[in-house]
Recover the amino acids of this structure.
């Protein structure tokens, strides 16, 4: 998997939007951008993924830059339950053989009441 | 759907003892993964299976670690003999495929403490 860069930590207020950035300047044309999060004392959970277009689901939105060298995970209204470590991961779409999830340090999101 | 099930949730054992961690993947998933998480090294992939067959075990740290998947609904990760440096949280995950369009579903983990 290509390398991603994320801030170590971010802070947000409850019920405000949160924008979590991720840089992936060496992304290849077939790499999907995946986001996972890990709540305290739990296993990682899938949040969202995309290739080129912005994506929305019930958990979050993913905004992908036009050149695909960066992306932003958007939580529209942060709740205390969203406090977690968020991982941005690139995965090659057609490469089944070596297409593992490689977790970096992620961004620790703290949500203040 | 019960999700990925792991047992036990917590295990405390003494150095030198054998430890067996268990995992039941989501029904219908073809791939099963074992990860280890420590403060120092983060989340690391140890081994993964496809259709019950081990495909890549390059992440297994030593011969003391072994993993099996006797059928599509059960896998074990065994450490024999255990050492204090094996203390970590071990996660099992499963998915339908490896391509970048598939997500992995993780279990709650087993927290292993070796004294």
């Amino acid at each position: 998997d290509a390398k991603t860069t994320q801030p170590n930590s971010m802070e947000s207020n409850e019920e405000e939007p949160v924008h979590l950035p991720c840089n992936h300047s060496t992304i290849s044309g077939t790499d999907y951008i995946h986001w996972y999060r890990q709540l305290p004392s739990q296993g990682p959970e899938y949040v969202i993924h995309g290739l080129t277009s912005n994506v929305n689901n019930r958990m979050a939105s993913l905004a992908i830059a036009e050149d695909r060298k960066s992306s932003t995970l958007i939580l529209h209204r942060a709740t205390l339950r969203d406090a977690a470590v968020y991982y941005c991961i690139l995965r090659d779409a057609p490469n089944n053989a070596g297409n593992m999830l490689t977790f970096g340090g992620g961004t620790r999101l703290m949500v203040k009441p | 759907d019960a999700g990925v099930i792991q047992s036990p949730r917590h295990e405390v054992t003494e150095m030198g003892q054998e430890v067996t961690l268990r995992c039941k993947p989501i029904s219908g998933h073809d791939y099963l993964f074992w990860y280890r998480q420590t403060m120092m090294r983060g989340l690391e992939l140890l081994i993964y299976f496809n259709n019950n067959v081990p495909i890549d075990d390059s992440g297994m740290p030593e011969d003391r670690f072994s993993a099996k998947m006797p059928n599509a609904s059960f896998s074990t990760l065994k450490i024999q003999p255990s050492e204090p440096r094996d203390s970590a949280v071990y996660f099992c995950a499963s998915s339908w495929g490896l391509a970048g369009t598939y997500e992995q579903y993780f279990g709650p983990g087993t927290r292993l403490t070796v004294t």
Notes: The longest strand of chain A covers residues 84-92. Chain A touches chain B at residues 30-32, 34, 42-46, 49, 91-97, 99-105 (CB under 8 Å). The mean pLDDT of chain A is 92.
